[in-house]
Amino acid sequence: MVEVQCEVMNNREVAGGVWNMALRSPDLAGTARPGQFCMLRVNRRLDPVLRRPFTFHRILPDREYIEILYKVVGRGTDLMTGLEPGAFVDVLGPLGNGYAIPEDARTIVTVSRGIGIAGLVALAEEARRRGVNVLALASFSNKDAVTGTELLDYFGCETALHTDDGVHGGTALVTDGLGARLAGRQVDQFYTCGSRRLAMAVYQWSAGHGIPAQVSLEQHMACGMGACMGCVVEAFTSGKRDAKAYRRVCKEGPVFWAWEVCGVA
Ligand SMILES: Cc1cc2nc3c(=O)[nH]c(=O)nc-3n(C[C@H](O)[C@H](O)[C@H](O)COP(=O)(O)OP(=O)(O)OC[C@H]3O[C@@H](n4cnc5c(N)ncnc54)[C@H](O)[C@@H]3O)c2cc1C
Ligand code: FES
Questions:
Q1: Closest ligand to 112 CA?
Q2: First to last CA, the chain
């Protein structure tokens, strides 16, 4: 983990209220893994005082930069939209555990909701680089919020888009009809981010079919390094319902087995 001053190379709105920021950093680009995150100080004046966590959207070691995809939800992210190319931001990372792709994986399925697609794009890029087939199910509230899917297409993923307003789908959940979509295919791993409800749906389906699932959680964070205990969640530790423990999302996560956060093994 390093603290680096990264130059903003690009910072632009790519969908309604969603921005993409490219940051030059040979250190982060050379060491970050999909599913890990960084803590960004959005303002040199220490207001807001706490750094904000963002997952890596793209990790480009050859070009020595990383990208983050962020949704404007409050003061910190609003300030970030004002960062012009050439500005420098203080970034701490890479942090957390990241997604694991099994060595022998042939096909994986990613399931995202909204901005949860950010880190799953990095995962899909890495999986395709290793020759793994990726089926990417991406759900958004409406067509103006759709982002990231063009990259999934570019990487050669099979992408299924769903919006609540029904423009591209209109079923109740992006996971509806999963059985029919996956019929006759062997899936090695599921990955999900962006919605607890979706994580539960993925867990129920994948557990019923004996397929492991990884869930990336979002939690308010102060230190991002395991010191403040501000990000703990209760998680199952075994197949027993009463076997629970507190886990720090920033340190033991943000990626957990679905059974740890959704149910028992
Ligand atoms: C590991 C991790 C990775 C993340 N990656 C991304 C990413 O790639 N792209 C992205 O857009 N966002 C991501 N987030 C969420 C992002 O950190 C928050 O949206 C951001 O910190 C909000 O800052 P703010 O000052 O704009 O909003 P605030 O003013 O702090 O809050 C505005 C609203 O957002 C809610 N909120 C703030 N932080 C969180 C959070 N961590 N989880 C849930 N709700 C929150 C608040 O409750 C409030 O309602 C990630 C969070 C974590 C923990
Ligand atoms: S944010 Fe401090 S322990 Fe996780």
A1: 1
A2: 32
43 alpha carbon, closest ligand: 1
- Distance, in Å, from the CA atom of 185 to the CA atom of 57, rounded to the nearest integer, reads 28
Output the pLDDT for position 251: 97
Ligand 2 mutation pick, 37, 38, 221, max ligand atoms within 8 A of CB: 221
Provide the pairing of β-strand 18-24 with 65-71.
Answer: antiparallel
Q: Distance of CA 52 to CAs 22, 118, 212, 220, 228, Å?
A: 16, 15, 30, 9, 15
Residue 153 is encoded by which pair of tokens? 């297409």
- Closest residue by Cα to residue 135 from 152, 158, 112: 158
Q: To test the ligand 1 pocket, which listed residue (20, 73, 223) has its Cβ within 8 A of the most ligand atoms?
A: 73
How far is residue 35's CA from residue 33's CA, in Å, rounded to a whole number? 6
Band of pLDDT at residue 256, cut at 50, 70 and 90: very high
Q: Model's pTM, two decimal places?
A: 0.95
The tokens for 165 are 């307003």
Do the Cβ atoms of 66 and 28 come closer than 8 Å?
A: yes
| Pocket of ligand 1 contains residue 77 by CB under 6 Å | yes
Rounded mean pLDDT, 10-22: 97
CB-defined site of ligand 2, < 6 Å: 221-224, 226-231, 248, 250
C-alpha Rg value of the chain to the nearest Å: 18
The pLDDT tens digits of the residues spanning 130-178 come to: 999 999 999 999 989 999 999 999 999 999 999 988 766 556 677 777 8
Q: What is the pLDDT, as a whole number, of residue 167? A: 62
